[in-house]
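ingest -> validate -> predict -> emit
validate: passed (alphabet ok, no gaps, 301 aa)
predict: started
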Amino acid sequence: MSDTALPVSSTASPSANRLALIALLIGGAAIGGSPIFVRLSEVGPMATAFWRVALALLPLVIWSRTAGNTVTDQRPAGLADYALLVLPGVFLAVDLAAWHLALHMTSVANATLLANLAPIFVTLGSWLLFRAHVSGVFIAGLATALAGVVILKGGPAALGDGQLAGDATAALAAVFYAGYILSIGRLRSRFSTNRIMIWSTGSAAVCMLPIAFFFEASFMPTALFGWAILFGLAFISHAGGQGLIIYALAFLPPAFSSLTLLLQPVVAAILAWLLLSEPVGLMQAIGGAVVLAGILIARRG
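emit:
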């Protein structure tokens, strides 16, 4: 999924910057591999989403025990603070549920690409909720991205094909991921990254548990391979990928975060082609490139 830019360290050495760039590329590739884990999972999309966040709590809790408190970290002062800490997890739960479902309804390339529309929805949400300024460059990027979606689907005449519902579900996931990013942005000045991640991940797991338990045919894997897939999704893609990106963007300029937007759909498409035999057609490749160009233009605006 998408990433958020963190403050840049102006005193970072060249070796630290190189290490950060390597971490950024590995983190983006790790997140790009998450759709493959979802597709290979032995349990359904909702159960996979639950185990993804539930198992990811393990490294996050270990991190909190070793990292200690930061200067910006505060303890929740009351019920309102706890509600604000839980809210991102609610958005994250809906985002993961929609995206995992979309991965079973449309191609990996389409689902991953459309989920990366989240930065556009973040800006639109900021404009609607906080009256943030929206520039002409952003409008141009939005129009380019929407044109790319039409090309991705094979032109206006193909918009009614069988994968439209899956593509729409992936776009809905992007909307809720934007809500996740916006709600986290309101917390970041008061609470540490680790505290926010633990609360959001834990509340997402709580939200997903009843849905996964009551509406999935199988809640737990029956084979070691199934558990390996879930641990890989939680540790490599969710906690590992996000952790590496958070580390990297503390040293690199914010513009480098665009690399992950480019890297994740490409890695997902290549892995889906190699492991799931999902070829990428010419029209799909052109449409995907136009969508990514629109997202990058919108981010600059």
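DSSP finds twelve helices and no strands in the chain.
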